[in-house]
TrEMBL record:
Pathway: Glycolipid biosynthesis; glycosylphosphatidylinositol-anchor biosynthesis. Coiled coil: none annotated. InterPro entries: PIG-V/Gpi18. This is Glycosyltransferase RgtA/B/C/D-like domain-containing protein. It comes from Streptomyces griseoluteus. It comes from the Bacteria. GO terms for biological process: GPI anchor biosynthetic process. The keyword Glycosyltransferase applies. GO terms for cellular component: membrane. Keywords: Endoplasmic reticulum, Glycosyltransferase, GPI-anchor biosynthesis, Membrane, Signal, Transferase, Transmembrane, Transmembrane helix. Its main location: endoplasmic reticulum. The lineage of its organism: Bacteria, Bacillati, Actinomycetota, Actinomycetes, Kitasatosporales. Residues 1-22 form the signal peptide. GO terms for molecular function: alpha-1,6-mannosyltransferase activity; GPI mannosyltransferase activity.
Amino acid sequence: MVRHRAPHGALLALTLFAAVRAAGIAAVIATNALTDRPLVRNLAHSWDSRWYLNIAAHGYGRLIWITPTGGVQSDWAFFPLYPALVRAADTALPLTPAAAAMLISWTAAVVAAYGVYLIGHHLYGRATATALVALWAALPHAVELTIAYTESLFAALAAWSLYCVLRDRWLWAGTLALLAGLARPTGFAVAAAVITVAAQQLRLRRGQAAPGVWAAALLAPLGWLGYVLWVGWCTGDVTGGYFAVQGAWGSRVDFGAGAARFVGALLAHGGQVIYPVALALVLISLVLFALLCLERAPLALIAFAGVLVLLVVLGSGSFSSKPRFLLPAFPLLIPAARALTRTWRTRPAAALLVGGALAVVSVLYGAYVTVLVHSPL
């Protein structure tokens, strides 16, 4: 297993993370109560959650959805690791499938936060690591780390794989990247980071890098590639079947054409609060990525965050979901975490005010998008 000494301050960072996210869950429950909805149902049965639970219970190929325009959306669009873990937990523990899904999401969220802390501590020290975890917990859409979605599981695998790259633990980095590729369609972002750094190592050492580097580069993309090819085989089109499945969901790389049309319609006709907020968050992610590059962050973090940002900008699909796709891109928060740390050292009251305000916004906005908004999460 990955061995390390728990650095000082990890408990404080994880306590902050758990407190903010527990407040977010409480806000969802309170909003459900105020609007006469089931108190906890939407934590495990919102949008994609229902597809994952159905896969966990019945396997693939059992559920399709006919869209109003006649499109056929199938469960093959959803990657297998999360429903497999839900099924395993449901089988091994006296839990309902929904409770098993929540247990996995909450556990993965804490594991992810610890991985984020380790990366921050390794690169910048305890204060910045704590700020990084706190900012990640207080993102506007961070509620989606603690519902029955795959973001927390993917973030956990990504953070620990990237940490292993930074610590030259290549076999673990490749194995975790492989698993990340089984968790989400964007899982190849982790593989891209591992392969990019491995290629750099091979170039610097004139091809004489340790065997573990080669193994990591070969292992990293196998999870994502294996599932894509399996879906293609199941649909009768090995190389194109998976992409046809995703296309039926409106998910494809259109080089920003769909996003441009959306922005034009939003400026012309307006929309719910969630849409301008989503647009603002995407634009902020571009700024944060530029700042991350200017910080000269490690190549693994830049590659991982860059691929996720690129997919959000160039990909089609529901614009309201784009902030969720950026949730695992925690390296984008490094410049803000370092700035918050500097503020803490000179003006601690101001740093507390900023952090507290972000947490309050995250808690309230999370309840809004989970309970009150009818657009896809």
